[in-house]
Design goal:
Layout lengths: L11 H10 L21 H25 L3 E5 L7 H12 L17 E7 L5 E7 L10 H12 L3 E5 L3 E7 L8 H18 L37 H56 L5 E3 L12 E3 L1 E4 L6 E3 H7 L24 E4 L4 E3 L34 H6 L3
Parallel strand pairs: 1-2
Antiparallel strand pairs: 2-3, 3-5, 4-5, 6-7, 6-11, 8-9, 8-10
Helix pairs in contact: 2-3, 4-5
Length: 411
């Protein structure tokens, strides 16, 4: 007795007939082509763009035909985050295949797409969306892109119409926008929106009636169909679970990488802020104490770098018994956020920067390099004008009080 199956199995003839009866769409690309990508120096790059796009188009067409997909989301490498080059990738994907060519290219114009590309520095992400005309009554490209950018909370759309839309998202740590994180979210949210419109299969609603899983699911040559020892439906379910597990594991690794980069960026910002604060305090202390502290400190060695003698400004630790460092090592200490080596190693000193607190110091060993002693920086009094009140306190105008005597005084 012949085994009955709950899903229809398309024959090869039916598959080819379906492909032929659907006319290839007439696609309009409304975005301008910038002159920079048509120049001679971009010729080699454009060949790579077209090659990658054409190859990916064939893959998408095949996956869509076998799996019944109407839309597809994927990432591209060659555009390297350039939205104009990514737009050309989309064109290559959608280019109608030429049957006479030995290597097939493009051919995915019937399938809607969202493609993304980030640059190597992870500082920007390019996005391009395409909706075939057969789907315009349900979804348009500019509508899709607008909703996606709003969901991601970042990005600017530079062009959009019913057929295509392109946008760019820039890395902005101050606003919590990190390209490595947004890259994954863009694909996920793009698919989620398609699901909400009924344009992408929801995993919870999948059934065997909608898919053909491989060559083994087609009829045998003699017209019969050999039932496997195990239920046919188990293979795709197991394969789907394995694929999902692999995807989850990859996301976990990527998430860990993103968090590590975020933590490193935050630490770098904190370090830079501490260094700037230390430099401000250093400048303030020099202005208060004066340049008389600057010179050669005879016989004094920097405990940090072992330079002898210290020349310039000398700093003494307030927390240690006898701990001198030079100006360069003071800058490297950065108010406790930097480093504090002990290269001289003549005494036991903590190499933990936060254990120290330094102040500008001099003693009798100093041979000042500043002529005249260089006392604290003094602000000069503003020069009085004739109609200003006299500084002697008489209440009279300067010109009628002390101006003549001031002019007569010797310089």
């Amino acid at each position: 007795m012949a085994t009955e199956f709950s899903f229809q199995i398309p024959t090869v003839s039916n598959f080819l007939f379906t492909m032929c009866e659907t006319a290839y769409p007439d696609i309009t690309y409304g975005a301008d082509v910038p002159d920079r990508i048509t120049s001679d120096k971009m010729e080699k790059k454009m060949k790579k763009i077209v090659k990658e796009g054409g190859k990916r188009g064939v893959e998408i067409e095949g996956a869509a035909d076998m799996g019944g997909l109407q839309f597809f989301c994927t990432a591209m490498d060659e555009p390297n985050g350039d939205v104009d080059l990514l737009y050309e990738s989309m064109k290559a994907m959608n280019e109608k295949s030429d049957p006479s060519e030995e290597e097939r290219k493009g051919g995915s114009g019937r399938i809607g797409k969202l493609i993304i590309s980030k640059n190597q520095e992870d500082s920007k992400l390019a996005l391009v969306a395409y909706c075939p005309p057969s789907k315009h009554d349900v979804l348009k490209a500019d509508q899709w892109m607008t909703v996606l950018l709003k969901t991601l909370g970042a990005g600017t759309m530079s062009f959009g119409d019913a057929y295509t839309a392109k946008a760019e998202i820039l890395n902005d740590p101050d606003k919590g926008v990190y390209i490595l994180k947004v890259k994954d979210a863009a694909i996920t949210e793009g698919i989620n929106y398609l699901k909400s419109k009924g344009l992408f299969p929801d995993k919870t609603d999948d059934s065997d009636d909608d898919y053909v899983f491989g060559d083994d699911d087609f009829p045998t040559a003699d017209g019969g169909y050999e039932a496997a020892e195990e239920p046919v439906a188990e293979a795709p379910v197991d394969a789907a679970k394995a694929a999902q597990d692999a995807e989850d594991a990859a996301k976990a690794v990527k998430r860990a990488e993103i968090m590590a980069k975020v933590a490193a960026a935050q630490a770098e910002r904190q370090k830079a802020g501490a260094y700037e604060k230390a430099q401000e305090e250093k400048k303030k202390e020099i202005e208060e104490k004066g340049t008389s502290y600057y010179g050669e400190h005879a016989g004094i060695t920097c405990d940090a770098c072992a330079t002898v003698p210290i020349f310039g400004y000398r700093y003494l630790c307030k927390s240690c018994a006898s701990h001198d460092i030079c100006e360069s090592c003071y800058d490297a200490w950065a108010g406790g956020s930097g480093s504090m080596p002990n290269k001289l190693a003549k005494q036991t000193l903590s190499t933990k920067a936060t254990d120290h607190s330094f102040t500008l110091f001099k003693d009798k060993t100093l041979k000042s390099a500043v002529k005249g002693g260089g006392g604290p920086t003094q602000k000069s009094e503003p020069k009085l004008k004739p109609n200003d009140n006299c500084s002697c306190g008489s209440g009279k105008k300067f010109k009628k009080c002390c101006m003549n005597s001031a002019l007569a005084a010797p310089n």
